[in-house]
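Listing 4. Sequential folding, example run.
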Amino acid sequence: MSQETTITQATGEITEAVVLDALRTVKDPDLHKDIVTLNMIRDIKLCGGIVSFRFVLTTPACPVRDQLKFQAEKAVMAVPGVERVEVTMDAEVPKARGVIDKSEIQGIKHIIAVSSGKGGVGKSTVAVNLAVSLSLLGAKVGILDTDVYGPNVPMMMGGNDMPMVRGNNIVPPVYHGVKTMSIGLLNPGDKAVVWRGPMLHSAVNQFLRQVEWGELDYLVVDMPPGTGDVQLSLAQMVAVAGAVLVTTPQEVALSDVRKAYSMFEQLHVPILGIVENMSYFECPNDGNKYFIFGNGGGEALAERYGVPFLGGIPIAISIREGGDLGKPVVIGQPDSPQAKAFQAMAQNVAAQVSIAAIKANKALPVLNLKK
């Protein structure tokens, strides 16, 4: 406690220093530092017994937003003489600095790769609902479908518009608030794409650098299955904030995701965590859970590698229907258990990106996002 704080407390005067000292007792549970040190408290204003300030989070998808707001209000209300606390919640997604030997894409703060070791685990479904969830929470988001042989993102996002061209750049259409790009928008219908490795590399480069992404907090990249050319190209071209690995509980999927983990480790791409899709089926009649593909495999794998378990997504008809109809479940049935599971997963992903960025940065700039 500062000398100024001690004096002002003795006289009953409320000052900015007193308020800041009170707020230093509140710590971010993920970053393990107090919110004043993290530069989250801005624009303190004092008017008699009324204290107001802005609380700037590291992501609009912060999973502990309400908890931190409550703790901050409680800490300031404990200051003698304070009658009311008014908190405005803002968010700014910090961009990690100090990236070596990687060309940044102007305007894009973080690239998140959603990957799996095999097909059929619902990777694209996770990527689409992750992107839309982040957008609904107030972030500026894009999704890039790099699975040129099986581009499912356009159907899942409900889009089939041919992108506009402006100069030498492609203008991505926007679906559900998310800027969207896929070879499926440029090559609609059932015509197959038959490309070799160098063409894939060139396509990924064009999708990253010749698309008008604008200002994005997150670019979610839906990767093709396996450990091939596209994964290597992405890691070589840009700094990837991290990879989200998608699996299902059964051993055959876990075995493949272990290979995906090894691949990203060799490419020096951080693992943000593991998502277990199709975790269980909850019977609507009796509420019992049935673990069709096994139980706890994704969580055990996360524990084995020492990475976060980002969440388990239950299997449900509504998820499949949402993908077929182009209305992700977080849009079509936002209050369903499945949507809430995706929303919680998105918040956990955003938290892991923020943790990595904060560790690399000394200060956070301010950006007003949707409250």
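-- end of first protein; second protein begins --
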Amino acid sequence: MRYTRQNKIIDLIAEHEVDTQERLAELLEKAGYEVTQATVSRDIKELRLVKSLASSGNYKYSLPEGGGERHTDRYLKIFGDTVRSAKHSGNMIVIKTLTGCANAACEAIDSLDFPHILGTIAGDSTIFIIVDDAEQAPLLSARFAELILK
């Protein structure tokens, strides 16, 4: 749940000028997350959000600049912590995750820009991946399996 909520926070600060923890908690609650101020504060710290100047002249939460490598590490950790298995058939890969974690793991896959992936669909605990060539599916499936073990 934490990873899913934190991914939602990243989406929210990209869509809105969020200037306070209270505003972030309000947006999370509207999105269906029950949070406390302490939870929001921990999430901000873990995500290493910073206040930056918005186009309106006000300050807002944003991701730190140059944080790409750190975010890659974070996505790999999310994937490794939530995925249980990866299997392929034809040009499709099916990934099983812990209950409620498929969206977070799918966001990790999408953000890491694996080659040959045409698209992903996430349910509650299952991700379907369509690969551009059936010969690539076993290679990607093996790569996903390696990431689970790390």
